[in-house]
Amino acid sequence: MSLRTRGASVASAIVLTLGLGLAPMPALAATSAELQSELDQAEAQLHSLYSSAEQANNDLVSVTNDLNETNAQIDQLETDIADQQVQLADTQKQLGNLIAMQYKGGEADLLTLLLNSADFNELITNVHYASSIADQKQEAIDQIKTLTTSLEESRSSLEEQKTQQEQLVSDQQAKTDEVNAAAADAQAYYDQLSDEVKQAIAAEEEAARKAAEEEARQAAEEAQRLAEQEAAAAAEQEQQAQGGSEEGGSANDGGSTSNGGSSNGGSTDNGGSSNNGGSSSNGGSSSNGGSSSGGSSAPTGSASAMVARAYNIIGSGYSWSGYVWTGSPSSSYFTCSGVVDYALGLPTNSNSPETLYSQVVSRGTYTTNAGSLKYGDLVFYRYGGRAPGHVGIYVGNGCVIDSVPGGGVQVRSMYFVNGFMGGGSIV
User: Fold this and answer.
1) Which of 109, 153, 196, 330 is the one with CA 20 to 30 A from 404?
2) Which residues touch 303 (CB under 8 Å, ≥6 apart)?
3) Closest among 393, 353, 402 to 373, alpha carbons compared
4) Among candidates 382, 343, 342, 380, which has minimal Cα distance to 360?
5) Which of 234-243, 345-354, 405-414 is predicted with the least confidence, judged by mean pLDDT?
6) Dihedral pair phi/psi, residue 315, rounded to 5°
7) What are phi and psi of 325, to 5 degrees?
8) Is the pLDDT score of 103 beyond 90?
């Protein structure tokens, strides 16, 4: 994808998010379910924007690296031109000295050649030799001048390229700043909406608690009223019974057997504890699938080292550009590809999900079968309009270590992020 096309995608994402930021805030009177629905939509838009922000930063790093490479080439050409100019000056000086020696004094120098020549043939040889040296020096001068001209032309071309690249960097920096600001605004909106969801849930729980207390109070009052009525009725019946006993004697007392005795049933009606079922009904640990869900191959040493480094940064926050590792997860930040870069021991912004994907594919280890993934494999996802736009490190049992907006670096289900594409080994 060209930078121009990517820029258009980023701009679309910015418009989307700025529209989100300008949307009216939901009233606290909304139910938690309604607010949660809005929060879920805001989260989806936030993730998409973070993906665009990450791509914008990747593009900025790319064009900046190109500019730095051009500057390095120009610096090298400057050095080469300076060297050639030194050689040119030295060769021109040698040729000047030779010409001065040959022609200064005119006949005297010719006489010197005659006197120093044993015969005519040697004289011819000496004259030819002196002329050849002069020709060689002139040829060297011409070659140096040609090379210098070529170097200067290359420098001129690189200077034009540098100007274009500086404009690209400036434009991309502006786009990156814009989308980063939009992402920050969207994050603030999401955080505020999340707080409102919590407030709504708390308000609903408080209302429910008060309603339950009121219901319990009313039930207690009703029970008290019924108890008082029953007590009054019992007292009245007792008075009537006492009045009747004066006429009927004790024959109406009856035996206690009319109450039933043990007919209320023993504790056997409750059933034994066997109704709860043994622990076998829950299944053994085999129901979790074990590591077989991600391949049975033993991890390689390099994969183990990579995963160990990734585990070391769990708890770090999310960043949409590379990574910042301070030595403590509490103050460090990683994008998804930044997790992989750090785990591989690479500098920040060394890769994007796309470049990591191309490396895995080129190794011939890529598979779309989730069951074939091995410990330490990279896992790729369609995300934020990119394919791939997200990457994680497989750690077995259907889980990956990755970094996502709002959650940072954690161990998650490999399907926590939708859009699974496939994966494979990079080490």
Assistant:
1) 196
2) 374, 375, 376, 377, 425, 427
3) 393
4) 380
5) 234-243
6) 100, -10
7) -110, 115
8) no
Contact of 362 with 399, CB cutoff 8 Å:
no
pLDDT tier at 42, thresholds 50, 70, 90: confident
- Side-chain half-sphere CA neighbours of 388 within 13 A: 28
N-terminal to C-terminal alpha carbon distance within the chain: 27
What is the per-residue pLDDT across 289-334, written as a single tens digit (0 to 9) for each? Answer: 333 334 434 556 699 999 999 999 999 999 888 999 999 999 999 9
Distance CA 296, CA 217 (A): 61
Report how far residue 19's alpha carbon sits from residue 25's, in angstroms, rounded to the nearest whole number: 12
The answer to whether the beta carbons of residues 333 and 324 sit under 8 Å apart is: yes
Residue 351 carries which side chain, given as an amino acid letter?
N
Collect all residues with Cβ–Cβ distance below 8 Å to 26 and sequence separation of at least 6: 34, 35, 38, 193, 196
The residue with tokens 């992402």 is: 183
Q: What is the pTM of this model?
A: 0.54
Angle at which helices 120-248 and 107-115 cross, to 10°? 100
Mean of pLDDT over the chain: 76
